[in-house]
Amino acid sequence: MTRISKQKRLMILAGGAIVALNWALTPAFAQSTGAWPSKPVRVIVSFPPGGAADQIARIISQPLQEALGQPVVVENRAGAGGNIGADAVAKSPADGYTLLMSSGGTVSINPHIYARMPFDPTKDIVPVAAAARVLVFLEINPTKIPVANIKEFLAHLKANPGRLSFGTPGSGSSPHLAAEMMKAQTGTFATHIPYRGAAPAMQDLLAGQIDFMFDPGIGLNHVRTGRLKMLAVGSPKRSPLFPDVPTLDEAGLKGFDADSVFGFYAPAGTPPEVISRLNREINRILGTQAVKDRVASLGGEVMPLTPAEFAAKASSDSKRFGALIKERKIIGD
């Protein structure tokens, strides 16, 4: 009986050791075999439906879902220039199941215009993958401003100080900064009307409630149909979609560049192997012709970057836009 008891005890101890070893090895084993993701991945877009961030998120979400083998659900949480959605992600578990899709302004502009941020974009979220460089296009409602080109528009703007209004997706957004750059370089003044996203601003431009707008690419079909007139591109180079439309640099506003890089972020502390997997999959998706074409239809261009390159771009933009924000005394909504 004594010998049997010892054997039983040895078996129990051995079994316990095996269980403990299995528990110890489970995380590493799960990661090495690609256990993530084992449930749906949520992408929070920090702007309303219909805007550039929303459309880019949805363009990428379907092929990403196929690559990951799990649903990728897009959810819009707009407000405060992207801060509401970004804050929700920053406070989510760092497990790879909650991502942020936002404009570069969330990390490179908002800290300069909001006296108090609900999260620290340099500590609470980390870059995962850039998605697209989004160009901005200066467009007018031709029924309200009967001008033929950018030079006539600037002359009209100078001749009517304070009488024209322009819409933006919100204070501090790249379209807003584009307008402020233009005003600063031309010595003109127009009334800023901030909206909760690009889509509602575009609706009011079409309705004639505002006079002009720097469009992040959502109104290009209206340009093609003639409901809107495109006067210039607020980027360093012309758009392949509208090769005859000059840049503002060509129109005399030297060095004009208001482009923004949209991309994906995750809560700080997200496992590096998860971020690497996401970056690899998203960059592969950006390399497909179908996605290139769909992003180009918005007037943008895909921009595959490593997380480190994406972070460096955000830092560079922060310095560039921060100087303008300070000079123009821009504050958040």
CATH class of the largest domain: Alpha Beta
As for the number of domains, it is 2
Stated plainly, the CATH topology of the largest domain is called: D-Maltodextrin-Binding Protein, domain 2
What is the overall silhouette?
globular
| Strand residue percentage | 15-25%
Strand tally: 11
What is the string of SSEs from the N terminus onward?
Answer: HEHEHEHHEEHEHEHEHEEHHEH
Rounded radius of gyration (Å): 24 Å
What is the makeup of the main sheet?
6 strands, mixed
Amino- and carboxy-terminal Cα gap: 80 Å
The overall average pLDDT, rounded, is: 89
CATH architectural arrangement of the largest domain: 3-Layer(aba) Sandwich
Proportion of residues in helical segments: 40-55%
Residue stretches low in confidence (pLDDT < 50, at least 5 long) are 1-33
Summed up, the helix count is 12
Order of strands, widest sheet = 2-1-3-10-4-11
Q: CATH homologous superfamily of the largest domain - what is it?
A: Bordetella uptake gene, domain 1
What would you call the structural class?
A: alpha/beta
Task: Describe the structure in brief.
The chain has about 325 residues and is of the alpha/beta class. The protein has twelve helices and eleven strands.
What does this structure look like?
- The protein is of the alpha/beta class.
- Helices cover 44% and strands 17% of the residues.
- The chain contains 12 helices and 11 strands.
- The strands form 2 sheets. It has a 6-stranded mixed sheet with strand order 2-1-3-10-4-11, sandwiched between helices.
- Helix 2 links the parallel strand 1 and strand 2.
- Helix 2 crosses helix 10 and helix 7 packs across helix 12.
- The radius of gyration is 24 Å and the shape is globular.
- The N and C termini lie far apart (80 Å).
